[in-house]
Automatic annotation (TrEMBL):
<keyword id="KW-0378">Hydrolase</keyword>
<feature type="binding site">
    <location>
        <begin position="55"/>
        <end position="57"/>
    </location>
    <ligand>
        <name>L-glutamine</name>
    </ligand>
</feature>
<dbReference type="GO" id="GO:0042823">
    <property type="term" value="P:pyridoxal phosphate biosynthetic process"/>
</dbReference>
<dbReference type="InterPro" id="IPR002161">
    <property type="entry name" value="PdxT/SNO"/>
</dbReference>
<feature type="active site" description="Charge relay system">
    <location>
        <position position="180"/>
    </location>
</feature>
<dbReference type="Pfam" id="PF01174">
    <property type="entry name" value="SNO"/>
</dbReference>
<keyword id="KW-0456">Lyase</keyword>
<keyword id="KW-0315">Glutamine amidotransferase</keyword>
<feature type="binding site">
    <location>
        <position position="112"/>
    </location>
    <ligand>
        <name>L-glutamine</name>
    </ligand>
</feature>
<dbReference type="GO" id="GO:0016829">
    <property type="term" value="F:lyase activity"/>
</dbReference>
<protein>
    <recommendedName>
        <fullName>glutaminase</fullName>
        <ecNumber>3.5.1.2</ecNumber>
    </recommendedName>
</protein>
<dbReference type="GO" id="GO:1903600">
    <property type="term" value="C:glutaminase complex"/>
</dbReference>
<feature type="active site" description="Charge relay system">
    <location>
        <position position="178"/>
    </location>
</feature>
<feature type="binding site">
    <location>
        <begin position="138"/>
        <end position="139"/>
    </location>
    <ligand>
        <name>L-glutamine</name>
    </ligand>
</feature>
<dbReference type="GO" id="GO:0008614">
    <property type="term" value="P:pyridoxine metabolic process"/>
</dbReference>
<keyword id="KW-0808">Transferase</keyword>
<dbReference type="GO" id="GO:0016740">
    <property type="term" value="F:transferase activity"/>
</dbReference>
């Protein structure tokens, strides 16, 4: 049987946290998954899924372009983006920097740094359709609009903070907060989607 492989984009942000949580999630689900760091075009090869951590979306975009990974990333079947990663997935972004691009894969409109400065970061318990989670928002974006095909998984004060979209064989999951800092909830959910468990 072909071995299972999930990549974590590893330029900056919560890379180690995502790797560890994905490994723990796989263990909880009793399946073997190789979790690899992705920094080159070559390491995108044969991935079942990619996780894009939070960090700085402008930097992530620049580094992915520099490494010539951009077009290949768009062809990955399953992508989970958290915070800056969610920005990377969005079709439309507000307050982008000059020349900033996204992968334009999910039909969502997202506003960068919409809660204000770093000091406006916060954390709180939220209910999601996957279960409860302690959600950590670090200079988080706000999702301003979701398309008809996008399923909302969690809201904070009426605003979408986690959602998913399936487009044919492609699957995308986005969270405005950092699920990797709290539990395996979102990673287990993502793994189940990727491997149709
Ligand atoms: N403010 C960052 C951006 O615009 C996102 C912050 C985060 O990923 N925690 O890319």
């Amino acid at each position: 049987m072909k071995s299972r492989k999930i990549g974590v984009l590893a330029f900056h942000g919560d890379v180690i946290e995502h790797i560890e949580v994905t490994q723990r999630a796989a263990k909880n689900l009793h399946i073997d998954i190789e979790v690899v760091s992705v920094r080159t075009k070559e390491s995108l090869q044969n991935l079942d899924a990619l996780i894009i951590p939070g960090g700085e979306s402008t930097t992530l975009h620049k580094l992915c372009e520099r490494e010539g990974m951009w077009e290949k990333m768009k062809k990955i079947k399953n992508i989970f983006g958290t915070c800056a990663g969610a920005i990377m997935l969005a079709k439309v972004i507000h307050h982008k920097t000059l020349g900033q691009k996204t992968l334009e894969l999910m039909d969502i409109e997202i506003d960068r740094n919409a809660y204000g400065r770093q000091t406006e970061s916060f954390d709180k318990d939220v209910k999601t359709s996957l279960g409860n989670i302690h959600a950590v928002f670090i200079r988080a974006p706000r999702i301003k609009r979701v398309g008809k095909e996008v399923k909302i998984l969690a809201r904070n004060e009426g605003e979408t903070i986690a959602c998913e979209q399936k487009i044919g064989n492609y699957y995308y999951l986005a969270a405005c907060f950092h699920p990797e800092l709290s539990s395996t909830l979102f990673h287990e959910y993502f793994i189940k989607k990727v491997y149709q468990m």
